[in-house]
Please model this.
Amino acid sequence: MKPKTDFFNATLTYFVLIVLFVLVRISTALDLFSFLGSAKSYLLNGLIQIGFMFLIPLFMFTLLSKQKFKQTFKDFRFNKINLKSIFICIGIGVLVFILNIAVSSFFSFILQLFGYQYSSGVGTSSGYPVWLFFVSLIITAVLPGFCEEVAHRGLLLRGFKDLGMKKAILLSALLFGLMHLNIEQFFYASLIGALLGFLTVTTNSIFPAMIVHFMNNGISVYLDFAGANDLFLGNFLNEVSAAISGSNFVVAMLVILLVLVLAIFLLAWLIYLLFKQTTGKKLGTLVKDLKESLSTVKADESLSENKDNQEIVKPESQASFVGELSLKIPTEYIGININQIRKPKYVEKIFLYSSLILSIGVTISTFIWGVL
Model:
């Protein structure tokens, strides 16, 4: 029997994940978990993040691929990055949060034009103690930053590797946006997912995406905590909103536009620095190895000349090394083989289509419910 491809194994695993996620959402809407009491939200979030987003992708893909867990972690790009790259990713995360505010506000405005009513958040009028801040940070930032990245920038990018870099990033980003099963989060989550996929592929490591994801969610948690306790930047979002709706609307919009342009510029610069610290360094090592190998080849060529100055006999090592270079760069140093794009067969796509149909259906239903 012919072994299943990574594409089939990844999409089957993801379909199981989505089905379980939808079942939990439906059960929550029907209040079937009321017996859990006040711990319901924490337990369900832990189940979804650790169980669905991390354990299912890790174990199912490993079993379906008939390989060791060590190889799965390698396939999911658990490749170390240096300390400087970590700080760069933290900066990227701050900028992504700023841009996220603008993107989410824009799409919120569009949805409201259609009559969509946003759901009210859970208030913190009874206080926001420090212990709750750390619990919220774990539930909202740490677990999603790690577990959701395993499912999307690990499992899906691995499964979609043969589609080419562009399709792999965009398709995994679309599924990331739909995974939230909520029209309110779909648009900006998809855009952030595309950026996180790009970072993962160009650095060949999942850790940058995890750090940026954590920072984006973590800043939001901090602002809620700071707002409830009158701490630094606690009224940041309220002040921005007040400035937009105030008398100096034009001036406020110009300032916001300037900030966004600056944030985009800085984001591009930090991404460039991150690339230099990760893949750029590896490519530099590759070039150095290439020069050393070519020097060895030239030395062999000089030795192959006979005393009568006959035709030089060129060893095959030079041609084979240069030919290998085009395959080694995208696979080992970038992470997706752009030279071997493969179109999956229809039978391989069945679980991908099923995941899309199910998640799109639920997401559209949240829009309809919000309008009605």
Observations:
- The chain has one domain: 6-275+352-371.
- The CA atoms of residues 99 and 360 lie 25 Å apart.
